[in-house]
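Figure S7 source data.
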Amino acid sequence: TNPEHSGSDLAEPYLGGLLASLGLNVHYHRARKDTLYYRDETGREVAVLDLVGGYGSTVLGHNHPALVAHARQLLDQGVPVHAQFSRHPYANDLAQRVNAILRREFGDVGEYSAIFANSGAEAVEIAVKHAELDRVAKVADLMAEIDGNIEKARAALAGGARVPADETLDRLTVARAAPPDAVLDAVTRANAERAAAAPVFLAPEGSFHGKLVGSVQLTHNAGFRTPFQSLAARCRFVPVREPDALAEAIDAERGTLFDVAVDGDAVRVVERDLPVICAFILEPVQGEAGIRPFDRETVERVQRVCAAVDLPIIVDEVQSGMGRTGTFFASSQVGLLGDYYTLAKSLGGGIAKAAMTLVRKSRYRDEFELVHSSTFAKDAFSTLIAARTVDLLEADGGAVYALAAERGARLLAMLNGLRDEFPTVVADVRGVGLMIGMEFRDQSGSAAGFIAEQARDGLLGYALSGYLLRAHALRVLPTASATDTLRLEPSVFITDGEIDRVEAGLRALLTALRDGDEAAIAPG
Ligand code: F0G
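Tokens for the predicted F0G complex:
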């Protein structure tokens, strides 16, 4: 049934109009593998080849039969979907399996505890909250230690010690001739203010980590982020591919606390590092920035620089994880070892909403479990579907990973061929496994007026997607923050015939763009 209401559209009403203007307003009523079906005006069912793949949530395709059967079975047997604050052995089972994969891909890296969530942004916010809990506790320990030192200093001063006048007092903004007690009070006052300062996060330019209150501050796209910047901690975006950029950013954000040290008959004011930077977060393959993988050299430098200041690394595998790139963790291909990993999207097998955050045991704080929870997280349905999804990825010695690498290479080779054929239209083709982007050259001067206009509005990728859907029954969408790049994230089951269909559709598109053929490309 397809109810048509007489009233106005109330469900995200603006989006409906935008979809219509781009020719993307179809309602899919059925899905299987890499195909979505809608009915046209005549009621005829149209099969669309889906390369969006649920924005990365359907690495095993839509409605994978084993997952559908499992879901049905769970509901038939009356599994208690919601039984919060009871034992969840299946959640432990999932955490153990993912830990075993971590060991296989990264070596003996120790255990990671798992916290469960409902969405990618929530998994990111769990990592952020945990890192902040850890940071705040470290600051508190530091403050307690300094308080102890201040008491020792008072005792030393009472015994005749003095405070030598040096430039640290200038930084403390007390007069060099100030009485010793005033110096100690100034230390306490300055530290209270410095320790209470908001933390800062570091992330590569182009990062996308979600759109909730906290995570959107880690998302570089100014349109998504800036209206909400007063709501959460700040992130500094770093051009990490430049060799010195991260070290410079860390230096620029560095903070200190004052401490006092008794040294013979002198009480010296000294400065100590204050952990102001909460975490460094990155995607191993940037998704929304236009599908941009990080190379091994950059990743090694990032890890070295972060380790030097004990800065935890959050590896966001929400989009790149779950086998899409040819390994379970995309980060393992470049040796990027995280203190935190986030998983979501395909974790739910394209059926459930499931997410998890892995936290390295050496940093893990048990008390986090008492301060973070969600009604829906770790529910039996999603967690068991996630476990079955992991099983399917791991089956037959990891056949799915091999398939992702092989299918991805084939798709990439085809796209590279098109790039060579249409150098004036295609700027670049890049990706890893089944996470691929095709970047278009600027079309704002196109002879096709519709294309030029959409390009000037930053909607080029959406306009191209509308054309591919209408004219070739191909579903493609641009990356969220680089709308000149079309993303291709089909399932591992995409066939040679389907890749040929993609090639034919794209060749027609590229030909029309090259020739500025308005009639071919503008909506009728
Ligand atoms: N992290 C990454 C790397 C993502 O790509 C996304 C979502 C999120 C976190 C947030 O996950 O949507 O479940 O809250 N990327 C989407 C996309 C929106 O367009 O690919 P979420």
